[in-house]
Amino acid sequence: MPGPQGLMRLALLALPLVVACRGADRPHPGTAASFAVELGKSGETLRGVAGDGTRVFVARGDTTHSEIEARNATGTAITWSVDVPGSAGALALAPGAVVVAMSATGVLANLGAPVTLHGEPSGIVVALDAATGQPRWRVPVDGTEFAVITSIAAITDPAKGAQVAVVIGGVFSGTIRVGDAVNGKPTARSIVSSAGRTDGFVAALASDGSVLWVDRVGGPGADAVEGVAARGDRIAIAGMVTGGADLMGEILPAFDERLPFADGFVAELDLSGAQRWAQTFGGKADDAVAGVAIDSQQRVAVAATLRTTFKLGDRQLDVRGAADGLVAWYSPAGVLGASTIIGGSDFDGLRAITAIDDRVIVGGFFRGALALGKRALDAGGGDDSFLVTVNASGQLETSWHLAGPGREEVTSLSSIPGGFLAGVAHTAALVIEDDTLPAPSDPTSGAAVIARPAP
Question: What is the number of other CB atoms lying within 10 angstroms of the CB of residue 352?
């Protein structure tokens, strides 16, 4: 299960293509297809999924190289594939482009002008043409020690004539420079330094890859941005902070400033990077944030994993087991709304979140028994996963059980027109309601993409 800081992502290794797709669930206007597809190559990790309703995009690879693929609407056929150096992560879709967050070291020479990355590792953002896979631009996030991009989202700025911008979030140590110089001529760049062990960062890039702004989140301890989301002119960020951390000079209050453990935070920024509001939550142990989403009503929802009694606004809430998941809603003005604890008597939590219309889908893990609304799930003594719809009143609606004799993990979620995509790791045969995928030949190599229509 994920560590307290949430910085290590579970490896998803792939194997030969196997498909389970129910004929009764063919797409019709406004409804996504329902399918489950086993992906990739043995020894590679599935690192990101995204889609637009007509194509599915996946990023997979190892620590030194990756393949970005475009597939058809049900994931069964590859339309293009591009090899890129480094380790690919989260994906975002901008008009006409798929944008990939990556980690790499050393000199990268086949993504346009050569770039040297000094951190171990550093980050780099690569935009590929969605139709052909040809590189459009790349932006390094170079760290003196390290810089990791944890999350990415695409937005449209209505104030600039539908100019597309990409927002990235992550964690770094030392100093980072976002942007570079091409052919000796300086381009837009931003440099920030950490205030302690590690800090979080959030940056906005224009549609041509130029750097718009960079903000730091952190203090003397270990801090990180673990999720970014965007809708219209709104940007939401979420992550972990320790005592003394600030966002643009405003202290983010900890549960107990004397404790070294991480609390969760969620904040909203405008398109210029200025803070609109910020809130923190947490308890007397390290808490982890899985991500953040903005729904169609402009509400912000954050997904997290909590380990002890914790404070959320003026509420004091108790977990039911060793750890539980939390979904908390905030109004467009940052006022706390409904909150929902998801978990049983064992070790449970959340891994991912995405918005679909006025609700969110969250993916998580559990051991033993778990109640999702009126539905009871049983992991059968192992580690299982789930997907569940949560509405703004905090109610759990439609759910999906990801089961099998091994271990299953939801590693990524992405909304698509009329539904959502989920990336799933599994070590044995995987059962997703009516779909069954076989066990991988290598127990570390199971990697699946599933799609479901919006419930």
Answer: 22
The pLDDT tens digits for 287-300 are 899 999 999 999 99
pTM (2 d.p.): 0.90
Note the pLDDT of residue 27: 37
**CA gap 389, 202 in Å, rounded:** 28
> What whole-number distance in Å separates Cα of residue 23 and Cα of residue 34?
9
Strands (E), 299-358: 300-306, 310-312, 315-317, 324-330, 336-342, 349-356
Which SS3 state, helix, strand or coil, does residue 158 take? helix
Q: Is 112 inside a domain boundary?
A: yes
Integer angstrom CA distances of residue 275 from 163, 270, 322: 21, 7, 34
Residue 10 forms part of a structural domain: no
Tell me whether residue 335 is in a domain. Answer: no
Adjacency order of strands within the sheet including 45-51: 45-51, 56-61, 65-71, 78-85
Q: What residues make up the domain containing 161? A: 86-286
Give the chain's domain count: 1
Residues 6+ apart with CB under 8 A from 212: 165, 188, 203, 204, 205, 206, 273
User: Residue type for 418, please?
Assistant: G
Residue 154 domain flag:
yes
Per-residue DSSP letter, 444: T
CA 164 to chain CA centroid, Å, is 20
Percentage, residues of the chain above pLDDT 70: 88
